[in-house]
Design brief:
Layout (H helix, E strand, L loop, with lengths): L4 E6 L4 H17 L9 E5 L4 E6 L2 H17 L7 E3 L3 E2 L5 E7 L5 H13 L5 E5 L2 E6 L2 H13 L7 E3 L3
Antiparallel strand pairs: 1-8, 1-9, 2-3, 3-6, 4-6, 5-6, 7-8
Protein backbone atom coordinates (compact mmCIF):
# COMPACT_ATOMS: atom_id res chain seq x y z
CA UNK A 1 0.00 0.00 0.00
CA UNK A 2 1.28 3.48 -0.84
CA UNK A 3 2.25 5.64 2.10
CA UNK A 4 1.42 8.94 0.33
CA UNK A 5 -1.66 9.79 -1.72
CA UNK A 6 -1.96 12.95 -3.80
CA UNK A 7 -3.94 14.91 -6.38
CA UNK A 8 -3.35 18.05 -8.43
CA UNK A 9 -5.51 21.18 -8.49
CA UNK A 10 -5.42 22.57 -12.05
CA UNK A 11 -7.25 25.06 -14.23
CA UNK A 12 -7.60 23.66 -17.74
CA UNK A 13 -9.88 24.24 -20.71
CA UNK A 14 -10.49 21.86 -23.59
CA UNK A 15 -9.71 24.03 -26.64
CA UNK A 16 -11.73 21.74 -28.91
CA UNK A 17 -14.83 22.40 -26.78
CA UNK A 18 -14.09 26.16 -26.94
CA UNK A 19 -13.85 25.88 -30.74
CA UNK A 20 -17.18 24.02 -30.84
CA UNK A 21 -18.82 26.65 -28.62
CA UNK A 22 -17.52 29.51 -30.83
CA UNK A 23 -18.80 27.73 -33.95
CA UNK A 24 -22.22 27.25 -32.36
CA UNK A 25 -22.28 30.92 -31.36
CA UNK A 26 -21.42 31.95 -34.95
CA UNK A 27 -24.21 29.74 -36.25
CA UNK A 28 -26.67 31.36 -33.84
CA UNK A 29 -25.53 34.87 -34.88
CA UNK A 30 -26.09 34.05 -38.56
CA UNK A 31 -29.63 32.84 -37.83
CA UNK A 32 -30.78 35.57 -35.43
CA UNK A 33 -32.97 38.33 -36.84
CA UNK A 34 -31.40 41.13 -34.77
CA UNK A 35 -27.98 40.35 -36.32
CA UNK A 36 -29.15 40.43 -39.98
CA UNK A 37 -26.98 42.85 -41.98
CA UNK A 38 -24.66 43.33 -39.01
CA UNK A 39 -20.86 43.26 -39.02
CA UNK A 40 -20.87 41.27 -35.77
CA UNK A 41 -18.54 38.29 -35.52
CA UNK A 42 -16.69 36.01 -33.12
CA UNK A 43 -13.18 34.72 -33.91
CA UNK A 44 -11.08 32.21 -31.97
CA UNK A 45 -7.28 32.39 -31.98
CA UNK A 46 -6.15 28.99 -30.64
CA UNK A 47 -2.44 29.86 -30.54
CA UNK A 48 -2.91 32.95 -28.36
CA UNK A 49 -5.92 31.45 -26.54
CA UNK A 50 -8.07 34.51 -27.21
CA UNK A 51 -11.49 35.21 -28.65
CA UNK A 52 -12.22 38.44 -30.52
CA UNK A 53 -15.76 39.87 -30.51
CA UNK A 54 -16.73 42.51 -33.09
CA UNK A 55 -20.12 44.24 -32.87
CA UNK A 56 -21.90 47.24 -34.39
CA UNK A 57 -22.89 48.81 -31.07
CA UNK A 58 -22.89 48.29 -27.32
CA UNK A 59 -26.18 46.35 -27.26
CA UNK A 60 -25.02 43.87 -29.91
CA UNK A 61 -21.72 43.45 -28.01
CA UNK A 62 -23.62 42.54 -24.84
CA UNK A 63 -25.73 40.09 -26.89
CA UNK A 64 -22.53 38.53 -28.30
CA UNK A 65 -21.16 38.14 -24.77
CA UNK A 66 -24.38 36.45 -23.63
CA UNK A 67 -24.40 34.11 -26.63
CA UNK A 68 -20.76 33.18 -26.03
CA UNK A 69 -21.33 32.56 -22.30
CA UNK A 70 -24.39 30.40 -22.94
CA UNK A 71 -22.61 28.32 -25.61
CA UNK A 72 -19.61 27.85 -23.31
CA UNK A 73 -21.89 26.79 -20.46
CA UNK A 74 -23.61 24.28 -22.76
CA UNK A 75 -20.15 22.81 -23.44
CA UNK A 76 -19.35 22.58 -19.68
CA UNK A 77 -16.83 25.44 -19.77
CA UNK A 78 -17.06 27.76 -16.78
CA UNK A 79 -17.70 31.45 -17.43
CA UNK A 80 -14.84 32.08 -14.95
CA UNK A 81 -12.52 30.85 -17.74
CA UNK A 82 -13.45 33.90 -19.85
CA UNK A 83 -11.73 37.18 -19.02
CA UNK A 84 -13.43 40.05 -20.89
CA UNK A 85 -11.20 43.05 -21.64
CA UNK A 86 -12.48 46.61 -22.11
CA UNK A 87 -14.28 47.16 -25.43
CA UNK A 88 -12.49 49.49 -27.83
CA UNK A 89 -13.54 51.41 -30.91
CA UNK A 90 -12.64 49.75 -34.20
CA UNK A 91 -12.98 50.68 -37.86
CA UNK A 92 -16.29 51.94 -39.33
CA UNK A 93 -17.80 52.67 -35.90
CA UNK A 94 -17.74 49.08 -34.66
CA UNK A 95 -16.69 47.87 -31.22
CA UNK A 96 -14.03 45.24 -30.64
CA UNK A 97 -13.54 43.27 -27.45
CA UNK A 98 -10.89 40.73 -26.60
CA UNK A 99 -11.71 37.73 -24.42
CA UNK A 100 -8.77 35.87 -22.88
CA UNK A 101 -9.12 32.20 -22.01
CA UNK A 102 -7.83 31.68 -18.46
CA UNK A 103 -5.68 28.53 -18.40
CA UNK A 104 -3.35 27.49 -15.60
CA UNK A 105 -3.27 28.82 -12.07
CA UNK A 106 -1.45 32.13 -11.64
CA UNK A 107 1.11 32.36 -8.81
CA UNK A 108 -1.07 34.63 -6.62
CA UNK A 109 -4.13 32.37 -7.08
CA UNK A 110 -2.00 29.31 -6.26
CA UNK A 111 -0.86 30.96 -3.02
CA UNK A 112 -4.49 31.76 -2.21
CA UNK A 113 -5.49 28.11 -2.79
CA UNK A 114 -2.62 26.89 -0.58
CA UNK A 115 -3.71 29.33 2.15
CA UNK A 116 -7.31 28.05 1.97
CA UNK A 117 -6.10 24.47 2.24
CA UNK A 118 -4.00 25.35 5.31
CA UNK A 119 -7.00 27.10 6.90
CA UNK A 120 -8.89 23.78 6.75
CA UNK A 121 -6.45 22.47 9.42
CA UNK A 122 -6.16 19.03 7.84
CA UNK A 123 -3.07 16.83 7.77
CA UNK A 124 -2.18 17.54 4.14
CA UNK A 125 0.81 19.11 2.41
CA UNK A 126 -0.04 21.56 -0.42
CA UNK A 127 2.76 22.63 -2.75
CA UNK A 128 2.84 24.91 -5.78
CA UNK A 129 4.28 23.23 -8.87
CA UNK A 130 4.31 25.60 -11.83
CA UNK A 131 0.72 26.39 -12.81
CA UNK A 132 -0.85 23.76 -10.55
CA UNK A 133 -1.06 22.89 -6.86
CA UNK A 134 -0.26 19.38 -5.62
CA UNK A 135 -1.88 18.22 -2.39
CA UNK A 136 -0.53 15.10 -0.68
CA UNK A 137 -1.44 13.22 2.49
CA UNK A 138 -1.29 9.79 4.10
CA UNK A 139 -5.10 9.69 4.30
CA UNK A 140 -7.43 9.55 1.31
CA UNK A 141 -10.21 10.90 3.53
CA UNK A 142 -8.21 14.07 4.21
CA UNK A 143 -7.73 14.57 0.46
CA UNK A 144 -11.47 14.11 -0.12
CA UNK A 145 -12.13 16.74 2.56
CA UNK A 146 -9.78 19.17 0.76
CA UNK A 147 -11.61 18.60 -2.56
CA UNK A 148 -14.96 19.19 -0.86
CA UNK A 149 -13.67 22.31 0.89
CA UNK A 150 -12.20 23.80 -2.30
CA UNK A 151 -15.43 23.10 -4.21
CA UNK A 152 -17.38 25.06 -1.60
CA UNK A 153 -15.15 28.16 -1.82
CA UNK A 154 -14.84 30.47 -4.80
CA UNK A 155 -11.34 30.94 -6.21
CA UNK A 156 -12.35 33.20 -9.09
CA UNK A 157 -11.01 30.68 -11.61
CA UNK A 158 -12.35 27.30 -12.71
CA UNK A 159 -10.50 24.48 -10.95
CA UNK A 160 -10.39 20.75 -11.59
CA UNK A 161 -8.85 17.89 -9.61
CA UNK A 162 -6.66 15.45 -11.55
CA UNK A 163 -4.06 12.70 -10.97
CA UNK A 164 -5.81 11.40 -7.86
CA UNK A 165 -3.63 8.54 -6.64
Amino acid sequence: MADQFSFDVVSQIDLQEVDNAVNQALKEIRNRFDFKGSKSSIELDKEEKKIKLIADDDMKLRNLQDILRSRMAARKISSKALEFKEPEKAFEGTLRQEVTLVMGIAQDKAKEIVQRIKEMKLKVQPSIQGDQVRVSSKSKDELQAVITGLNQTSCGIPIQFVNYR
